[in-house]
Design a protein that fits this description.
mainly beta; Jelly Rolls; six-stranded antiparallel β-sheet; metal ion binding; metal-binding; Cupin type-2 domain-containing protein; RmlC_Cupin_sf
């Protein structure tokens, strides 16, 4: 299945509920509910912008860093991340990410439900 994203991004603020700055989001609709994935998007975070620290109570999320660099926090542990890194936040865990670089941080994200 090929899922095409929108040509124009949607300006979003306070991502994760408490994020800083704004980002462009490029959500991709998943046409069925038969699989594990419920949402996927590409985010473009400006320098200093963030997805606020938030809980994944009943699903999991994976981030793919496509370009740029940032600080990724999961379960209150923060690490530097860059293009090519992949982070997986399991159900019941909390995470967030901040663009700590000088360029746009581009993150692919997908949320999946658990069994």
């Amino acid at each position: 299945m090929i899922l095409k994203n929108q040509e124009d991004g949607i300006k979003r603020e306070k991502l994760g509920g408490s994020g800083k700055g704004h980002a462009l989001a490029f959500p991709i609709a998943i046409p069925d509910q038969d699989g594990a994935f419920t949402m996927t998007t590409r985010l473009e975070l400006e320098p200093g912008a963030s997805v606020g620290y938030h809980l994944h109570a009943d699903n999991e999320e994976v981030y793919f860093i496509m370009s740029g660099e940032g600080l990724y926090t999961e379960e209150n542990e923060t690490q530097h991340v860059k293009a090519g890194d992949i982070m997986l936040c399991r159900m019941g865990c909390s995470h967030g990410i901040e663009n700590s670089g000088k360029d746009t941080l581009v993150v692919g994200a997908a949320i999946a439900k658990r069994g």
